[in-house]
Amino acid sequence: MCLSVISNLKRSVFGCNFDISMMDARVTSHKDGVFIEALDATEGWIPLFGAGPDRIFVTMPTCWPCDDRSDPRMGDVNVVNIAADLLLGKRKFSDAVKLAEDDRICSIPSLTFQCQVADRNGNVLRFTPHIGWEYLERPPYAVMSNFSPFIGDGMGTDRFETASIILQEADDFSVMDCFNLLIRCRMTSPPTRVSLVFTPDDGTVYWCPDGNINLIESVKIK
Length: 222
Fold this sequence. Notes:
The structure is a single chain. By secondary structure, the chain is α+β, with helices and mostly antiparallel strands. The chain contains four helices and 17 strands. It has helices spanning 79-88, 93-101, 157-169, 175-184; strands spanning 3-8, 12-19, 25-30, 33-40, 44-52, 56-59, 62-63, 77-78, 105-106, 112-113, 115-118, 124-128, 132-136, 141-144, 192-199, 204-209, 217-220. The strands form four sheets. The chain has a seven-stranded antiparallel β-sheet with strand order 3-4-5-6-11-12-13, with helices on one face. Strands 14-1-2-15-16-17 form a six-stranded antiparallel β-sheet, with helices on one face. It is globular.
């Protein structure tokens, strides 16, 4: 299911919850990025969420209920591949904006993944494939859960509203503020496996398993 939050108050702080039950998940870290990966039976470990080269932040919440308008068309690029390419440095933020603008992004058949991406300056691209997209120039905050912002109905409205209210009322928003928000919005079915926070100004990525802030790890990326 998942949740993505972007805050650009006194400093940019980005965060996400990664919720999954049917696949194994892990966090991989190195000097260029920290990825939350899921194990696909065919493709192996695929990076889906996290922070990557040039301090890009990538999240890919599921849109539920799914919408078959997001199914592939001839010449499309799959959103899963776009997320992985951004995290691995194979595509740039501007490349994703262009693909969204040209309506060339699809999801996988019968499952609608959407995407919220932020660059190191806090600018945000978000889209639901073939349904809608928008580019937000350093918004005060942006939240994406499991309904499309371009449809406005579906799963995750409670978590969306909780996160939005916290961000609306904040004068400042720290790393621990973000973790507290994510823990307040964590799920049990499917469970939140990883909560991750990223501060692009200094390139630090923080994460913890299962909402346990006593187990927070961190690493700096380029």
